[in-house]
Amino acid sequence: SYMKDDNVSQETKNLISSLPSDKDFMGYSLYNYKGCWYYPNTLQAVLDVQEHFQPRKKDIILASLPKGGTTWLKSIVFAVLHREKYRENPQTHPLLSQNPHDLVPFLEIELYAGSQTPDLTKFPSPMIFSTHMHLNTLLEATTKSSSSSSPCKIVYVCRGIKDTFVSAWHYRNKLHRTEMDQASFELMFDAYCRGVHLYGPYWEHILSYWKGSLEDKEHVLFMKYEEIIEDPRLQVKRLGEFLNCPFTKEEEESGSVEEIVNLCSLRNLSSLEINKNGTIRVGVDTNVFFRKGEVGDWKNHLTPQIAKTIDEIVESRLRGSGLIF
Ligand code: A3P
After folding, report:
1. Keyword annotations for this protein (predicted)?
2. E-assigned strand segments in the chain
């Protein structure tokens, strides 16, 4: 339904008619608003976030591209932030009975979707929210202008484009319970290479957060999925420091970091009943968020030639930024 335009106001329709447009690989219209591609309903929600959303100073916003490691980041940040609360009774930890997406709601996909204007004061502070918006658009929302720095902490996670794409492909198949044919695989790949996909282009997305993290280290943390895979303990500690709740020596010695790593591991989360047979509030089956969780799975799906094509595109777009993938 997010591809449709049934929640779009007349004002937004007028705006949309002035925006550059293109079609996604299935033929649905996408519109480019401030450098990012949206379906009409998504754009309406983003505009509503811009108008109404006001984070509190201690709130935390998690950002990512779809399939960039969102679910993992949500679970880790939740576990780091609330570790003290569940230390005595770890069996009551919310991550054991709820999917990370229900603990950390999306702004534009859940809270402000369908033209809702939610009352966010009902959430205890600090609250963790999430978004797929570009940093520039997010900052316009949270600061209500385009020049101020973020009023709260933002954590971004990204992942190599080839694994992100392959993960997105599997996600679509699972969601629609069909295996799409080779022709649509190629169409989707082509659209990805052109940057014409929801929240794309990939490189604009990651560059917005990369630059933001260099300009405002205190508020924007840039993380890579691959780095969390490589050394999850280190990244969990890094998060603790960034969020102003560093792990104490005692905590480290008592295994608190490892506990979080294990709790949030793909193996553990995907084995829980809630994540095997549950459904999140927005109506998606929980199991679609968990698959292999590996680095380099693209090798099983992309030919070396196709991989080279997409690598060259990303390389040329990131050149000079200091960001390497
Ligand atoms: P794969 O499809 O490559 O397996 P998102 O959370 O942004 O939707 O991204 C989904 C990807 O993250 C999937 O990748 C999924 O398997 C992986 N993932 C989900 N939970 C994870 C976890 N706890 N640890 C590591 N990877 C995880």
Report:
1. Transferase
2. 21-23, 29-33, 36-38, 60-64, 128-131, 153-158, 220-224
